[in-house]
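Posting this for the archive.
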Amino acid sequence: MRPIRRRPIARDFSLLQLLPNILTVTAICAGLTSIRFGVQGNHLLAVELIFFAALLDGVDGSLARLLKSNSRMGAELDSLADFLNFGVAPGLLVYFWALQDMRSAGWISVLALAVCCVLRLARFNVAMKSEDEAPGPRLPPGYFMGVPSPAGALLAMLPMYISFAFTAPGANHEPVVPGILICGWLVLVGLLMISRIPTWSLKAARVGRENVKFLLVGVAVAGAALLTYPWETLILLCLAYAAMVGLAAARPPRRRSRD
């Protein structure tokens, strides 16, 4: 008599293990909602939602590794969320705000940003699956190759920050930057995403025990500044990050050999 094969018992997941995927789905909802508010003209809330999605993106992966709940589904979901939140939403916000009158040129720049973002994500996924398959030389620990997509999204909206910071509250917030320069800026940010410039990874940063108190005070001050002077603070953050990228391009860190 042949033995009866029992079906494998489905593994149940705790809500805590599903938390990284829940955060990723929340980030997707934030990105989609930012597009809605951008179309409706509520640009501040739209930008804040993309910033919120960027914060969630920085947490979900680390949380998944901490809870040992990594999965292929979670990795694919994270990539799709990054493309929507940092490749599609920022470009659409800028387009609906300032580039609709330019028609073809404005839309081409939005497409360039989105395509560069998805190419970067594809390259990153290949590198994560097998480091030996990653094109080009290896970078030292603590560095990305090219500008990460969350940082690229925040940089892409810099013309919006400038225009809103230097116009009176309640005004129509017409762009103070010419449309053709905004188009060029979107293309430049897209090219930075797929470039081979080594950029510093915040996730790899380490803080000495004696400096923790200063970091906490700095985070509190930055958070208060974002709430009180959002546009000016975002401009300073973008300029500081752009300076870091320029410094890394001028003086790249030593790369690891493949031996």
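Residues 109 and 183 are 5 Å apart (CA to CA). DSSP finds nine helices and two strands in the chain.
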